[in-house]
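Re: weekly structure request thread

Next one in the queue (151 aa):
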Amino acid sequence: MNQADVATEPGVEFVAHYLKDLSFETPFGPCPPEKLASVDLKRDLRVGVSVSGDGVHEVDLGLFVTGTLEGRTILLCELTYASMVRLHRIPEPVMPQVLSVTVPGLMLPLVKQVLAGNSLFAGFPPLELDDIDFMAVFQQSEASRLPGTAH
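Done, posted below.
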């Protein structure tokens, strides 16, 4: 594929990736290895999209992880990873889906790497994040915006 083909094909151009925010706390130090299987991990995810100008969109993938053991919070992680993207020849009606489903899906491996590395440095085994169905997240978000939908 040559440069002319790239200019006419629909696609997403990643202009930049960056770690926008990171807080990783282990208030009681590392978890004893024999208790790791008992840690209850709760994960929450947020996808945010904004226009930063010049046809560039910023997509934020926010991840919040809380680990509890025996009623105590032993791990807190807030992570926001951002990508600046430019869309090429994407039809207007599907832009929200591309920005909220396709782009976060491409960002997820980088977020997983940041989470795993920081948990290792904090004295835990690398935390693994399951794959995420961004289409389901997008559809749920869209459904909650419809008039008469309970929030």
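The two ends are 46 Å apart (CA to CA). The chain has three helices and four strands.
Next request, please.
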